[in-house]
UniProtKB/TrEMBL annotation:
Single GO BP term: L-histidine biosynthetic process
Source organism: Rhypophila decipiens
Signal peptide stretch: none
Record-stated family: Belongs to the PHP hydrolase family. HisK subfamily.
Highest taxon in the source lineage: Eukaryota
A molecular-function term among this protein's GO annotations: histidinol-phosphatase activity
EC code(s) of this entry: 3.1.3.15
UniProt keywords, alphabetically: Amino-acid biosynthesis, Histidine biosynthesis, Hydrolase
Name of the protein this chain belongs to: Histidinol-phosphatase
Residue ranges of every copy of the PHP domain listed in the record: 5-225
Pathway: Amino-acid biosynthesis; L-histidine biosynthesis; L-histidine from 5-phospho-alpha-D-ribose 1-diphosphate: step 8/9
Reactions performed catalytically: L-histidinol phosphate + H2O = L-histidinol + phosphate
Gene Ontology cellular-component annotations: cytoplasm
InterPro entries in alphabetical order: Histidinol_P_phosphatase_HisJ, PHP_dom, Pol/histidinol_Pase-like
Length: 317
């Protein structure tokens, strides 16, 4: 049973992704997905949080469009859930942001406001309020704001991630070690076996975060977008994945696609990676009722184990 728990479309993430959401759904069906988690980005609330691509024609206009776009997305997601119910199990979610602690309450408000929402992804794309995965210039700006070294930047990132985890306890933790994407050494081993001078402090923060996720029953996504962006391993990197498994952690699986061209990208490599770690099953959610909701009540979600062998068998790549 192939699936993704993390996806985006150009329709509701313009400038950052491509294609209409319905085209993404149809393509997901064509490659063998049986479950599709829709997780467009949540709206932001401050002009300072806009990306460069959102500053024209007017930052104020871009900001004002975010919340209405989120509402339109939820309506379209429900329509598609109904329309394609016989072909694919659609989960409706969104990708949360933790740019600063105030966003935690907004994530909770967005989740509570619409009973159609099944889950949200707990993600960190910033450190000290500065994006760390948009481009190298911003990554370096975040590093300077955090103290001028990558060690200090990593420390801030994992501390802010911990605050997000404690506040939100997301079922799906997005791209756990996204901080390494634009790092000077993307393959750096952060475990005690590594050679990085700052590894002891960083590793202790990583383990703390992993223990917390395991403790409340969250999942890390094995996110294959790292591979299409040139990294050697998905998120999370092997030392972190090994520690998570040692602690009893469970993985879900995501392509983090931003359009039909990225649906299931590097999925075979991602599955090979997990099997090399000894992983035999992946986890997703099943909603009841599906499609839709009854009497305006949120659907009940059941955790579902999917053997990797079954996942592979469904893929049509």
């Amino acid at each position: 049973m192939a699936f993704t728990m993390h996806s985006h479309s150009g329709q509701f993430c313009p400038g950052h992704a491509k294609d209409e959401l319905e085209e993404v759904v149809k393509h997901a069906i064509s490659v063998g997905y049986k479950t599709l988690g829709l997780t467009e980005h949540m709206p932001r609330t401050e002009l300072s949080d806009l990306y460069p691509e959102e500053l024209t024609p007017s930052p104020e206009q871009s900001l004002s469009e975010l919340t209405p776009r989120h509402k339109s997305y939820l309506l379209e997601a429900q329509r598609l859930q109904q329309k394609y119910a016989s072909q694919i199990h659609i989960l409706i979610g969104f990708e949360g942001e933790w740019i600063r602690p105030a966003y935690g309450s907004l994530v909770q408000e967005l989740y509570s406001a619409d009973s159609c929402i099944d889950y949200f992804i707990g993600s960190i794309h910033h450190a000290a309020g500065v994006p760390i995965d948009f481009d190298k210039e911003m990554f370096l700006a975040a590093k300077e704001k955090c103290g001028g070294t990558e060690e200090k930047l990593y420390a801030v990132y994992f501390d802010e991630q911990f605050e997000m985890l404690k506040f939100l306890r997301p079922k799906v933790v997005g791209h756990f070690d996204l901080i390494r994407l634009l790092s000077d050494e993307t393959g750096r081993d952060l475990s005690p076996a590594g050679s990085w001078a700052g590894k002891e402090e960083i590793w202790s923060k990583i383990v703390r975060n992993l223990e917390f996720v395991v403790g409340y029953g969250g999942w890390l996504e094995c996110n294959t977008s790292a591979l299409r962006k040139g990294l050697d391993e998905p998120y999370p990197a092997r030392p972190i994945a090994e520690k998570f498994l040692e602690l009893g952690g469970r993985f879900t699986f995501s392509d983090d696609s931003h359009g039909i061209a990225q649906v299931a990208t590097n999925y075979v490599r991602g599955l090979d990676y997990l099997e090399s770690l000894g992983v035999k099953e992946l986890w997703t959610l099943e909603r009841s009722t599906h499609p839709g909701t009854q009497n305006g009540e949120r659907a009940q979600l059941t955790e579902k184990s999917v053997p990797i062998s079954e996942f592979r068998a469904d893929l049509k790549l």
